[in-house]
Amino acid sequence: MNQRTLIPFFRLAFYVTAPLLLLGLAAIWLVSSDPLKSLSSATPPIENITFERVVLDDEGIHLKIRASGSEPMVIAQVQVDDAYWAFKQTPSGPLPRMSSAEIDIPYPWVEGDAIALLLVSNTGATFAHEIEVAVPTLTGQSGRFRIQALVGGFVGVLPVVIGMLFFPLLVRLRAEGMRFVLSLTLGMLAFLLIDVLGEAFEFAAKTTAGFQGAIMVWLVVLVSCLGLIAIGRRDGAPSALAVAFFISLGIGLHNLGEGLAIGAALASGGTALGTFLILGFTIHNVTEGIAIAAPLTKNRPHLIVFAGLALLAGSPAILGIWLGSYAIAPQWAAMAMAVGAGAVLQVIFEVGLLTRKDGVFTLDRYQLGGLVMGIAFMYFTGMAIKV
Amino acid sequence: MHPLLQKLVGRRSLLTGGAVLAGTTLAGSNSALAQEVPAKPKPMTGMSGHRGQMITVGNVGLDVNSFDPSELLTDWDSGVVTQAADGTNIRTFEVIAEDRDIEIAPGVIFPAWTFNGRVPGPTLRATEGDRLRIVFKNFGSHPHSMHFHGIHSAAMDGLDGSGLIDPGEEFIYEFTAKPFGCHLYHCHAFPLRAHMHKGMYGAFIVDPDPAKHPEFQDVAASRLLGSPENKRWQELVMVMNGFDTNFDGANEFYAVNTVAHHYMKNPIRIEKSRPVRIYLVNATEFDPINSLHLHANFFDYYDHGTTLTPTQKTVDTIMQCQAQRGILEFSFADHDPGKYMFHAHQSEFAELGWMSLLDVVDA
User: Which residues of A touch B19 (CB under 8 A)?
Assistant: First the structure.
């Protein structure tokens, strides 16, 4: 490297490092001089604990907690139902901001009772968590897996297959009928989007403050939606099969969310999920199959393709039930729901483009009727399952 | 969770109905659904015994605290005695109010206001008829006072104008020790509740003068600290208290002499041949009453300690309202040696720390 290229190189290096150097100096000054000391001399540190998972088994109660204090937090004692109980924390010691730990309490809990948990920190601050109904957590028992898969099949796979059976009818539709069906799909997707977003925010609200739950959800929705559009359109407009694939993916992620909720209910309430409720979910989700089949009327793909799409859309419900029954940490559930919302949003975009007439957006009576029907069907079947 | 599912979780009975209906709607899967009903939990084999786990974890040492509850039991502050011209004893105590962090349970630090750096404050012990001089200095961050449960002039009451002093000030309370009994003192600055539960209380014991009670001279002598009759007795002072650590107006920790479960982990040694006398004071804030129940034995109780005959004979449980106190007398002479429990019989208080053991030994 000669003199002539060396000087611009150093200059460039300086332009990169100078701002970072200033940031570093500011950080050193702030930490070493602690100018905020005078503001906080008497105020106690902010302490917060999030309960991410509660597992009950024959060894007692097992908690996964996450700390989000302004300083490392110390769990000094643990109360169960207004009594101090011996417990073991792993890893032991103070919990820095955003770190998690397992707390094992050998407590002879009584099935069916409510249990009030209270963690006491070294400053005497308390963090409560209520187990509404104590039942053994279903974790990794093969017998449970089978029944959970069965429930998942009923709420996920079966309705998609039933919906797809409308395909021979769809192929025979004229242009107006097709616009109606595509709009019906859009209406259904709009319902799913709102539903899955609602779930995402519900989980996000249970996360530690540091995860910035609501912002995280929006960002994941945006990134996954744009990412999927980019993947689908890397070579121009996606093919009909690709649109069907993405609809299946979006619905699959939504069904994962439904599975999580059902799994959590199974885990905390035994057979809390009544048979009628499962049947309700099956009917509620029938339009999903129609939605997947709708873009494929001109292709008439092989039966194997339909089977693959049905599995992609339906089987995540089974996975969701497994995960949900193991009491998945809320930030992961929120993230999965947000990806689902992003995927549904992408599908709304693509299907929306399909409804154009000669490249122009229209909203004729068939389309309006389809939209309203789609939303209404989802809403009213939803009403039936919301006991 | 799905709101509808959440609702269902709380209604398990409804679900059983759902499972029955499975027969009509999903005949094929009925048996599979029935299996989903969770089996009765197996015996909790993973737990190392079903007992003895209900306790705070760890120990409270002298890292934070300047006092050891085991020593506090018998730590009498008799002051400094001088003779007045007329021959009466003048007993002078020094008490300092100061802010101090104390460890009330393993790892739990409470920002207390203290008398002499400890909670409960020093056990002031005098003899009936003494002239008392309590030199009180306020080194704390708030106005404080010493309000004695005893007989004294309005000017010595520990209220505004009678000994409630600002930080940095000093006041000398002067009065005659009477009536004999088991009493207490506490700060009477307002808000009273805050000053009480921050730790500003202590026992104030006035021993009877045997010369003044000819009809019960031996009983009075047995209560007079340092007399030959008194030496037989094992005397213990216990102040029942509680701490609200999260400002919700209810105590998170209960104890006798401050440290939750201290005497469970460090049982109080009792020689079975010697009778036991407990000076019990209730300084619990927030809860109207506290109690003491002794296992496997009965005791005589002297409410307020102001009589030389028991006010309740042969009881094993007594209760005290806030600031009530009394003397318990019992013997383990005819018992087997071993650990004998005593605790508040409000189960909640016991399980939150007010649970203790006597270790009765052959001696």
Answer: 271, 274-275
3-state secondary structure of B252: coil
- The C-alpha atoms of residue B165 and residue B158 are separated, in whole angstroms, by 9
pLDDT band, very low/low/confident/very high, at B316 (cuts 50, 70, 90): very high
Q: Using CA atoms, how far apart are residues A360 and A358, in angstroms rounded to an integer?
A: 6
CB contact under 8 A, B41 and A272: no
For B203, the token pair is 């026992």
Which residues are CB-neighbours of B224 under 8 A, at least 6 positions away?
B127, B207, B208, B209, B210, B230
Does A42 reach chain B within 8 Å, measured CB to CB? no
Cis peptide before B69 (omega within 30 of 0): no
> Å from A362 to nearest chain B CA?
36
B28 and chain A in contact, CB less than 8 A: no
Give me B251's structure tokens.
């105590």
ipTM of the predicted assembly exceeds 0.85: no
Residues of B in contact with A125 (CB under 8 A): 245-246
CB contact under 8 A, B352 and A202: no
Spatial contact of A327 and A264, defined as CB atoms under 8 Å apart = yes
Tokens of B261: 């479960």
- Residue owning tokens 């052959």: B362
Interface contact flag, A272 B12, Cβ < 8 Å: yes
The verdict on B32 touching A (C-beta cutoff 8 Å) is yes
* pLDDT tens digits for range A55-71: 888 889 999 999 988 88
> Is residue B17 scored above 70 in pLDDT?
no
Which segments of chain A have a pLDDT < 70?
1-4, 38-43, 138-144, 266-275, 327, 384-387
- What 8-state DSSP symbol labels residue B24? H
For residue B282, CA distances in Å to B100, B179, B242, B344 come to: 22, 19, 10, 11
Tell the residue number behind the tokens 């992408």, with chain if given: A346
- Determine contact: B1 vs chain A, CB below 8 A: yes
Q: What is the pLDDT of residues B143-191, one digit of tens each?
A: 999 999 999 999 999 999 999 999 999 999 999 999 999 999 999 999 9
Provide the token pair at A114. Answer: 């409510």
| pLDDT bracket for residue B9 (50, 70, 90) | very low
Residues of A in contact with B31 (CB under 8 A): none
C-alpha separations of A184 from A187, A291, A372 in Å: 5, 8, 7
Provide the number of CB pairs (under 8 Å) joining chain A to chain B.
187
**Hey, which residues 114-153 in chain A have their CB within 8 Å of chain B?**
120-126, 132-133, 135-136, 138, 143-144, 146-147, 150
- Residue A59: list chain B partners with CB under 8 A: 44-47
Q: What is the mean pLDDT of residues B306-332?
A: 97
Which chain B residues are closer than 8 Å to A126 by Cβ? 245-246, 248, 252
pLDDT the model gives residue A139:
58
Residue B267 has pLDDT above 70, yes or no: yes
Pairing of strands B276-282, B234-243: parallel
Tokens 């209604």, residue? Answer: B11
Residues 6+ apart with CB under 8 A from B210: B217, B218, B220, B221, B224, B227
A267 touches A137 (CB < 8 A): yes
| pLDDT tens digits, one per residue of B294-305 | 999 999 999 999
- Per-residue pLDDT, A281: 80
Q: What is the pLDDT of residue A41?
A: 58
Q: Is B333 on the interface with A (CB under 8 A)?
A: no
In this prediction, residue A3 carries a pLDDT of: 64
State the alpha helices, DSSP H only, in chain A.
Answer: 3-33, 142-152, 158-164, 167-171, 175-205, 213-232, 240-269, 275-284, 286-293, 303-314, 316-325, 330-354, 365-385
Query: pLDDT-derived band of residue B22, with 50, 70 and 90 as boundaries?
Result: very low
A chain contacts of residue B14, beta-carbon cutoff 8 Å: 274
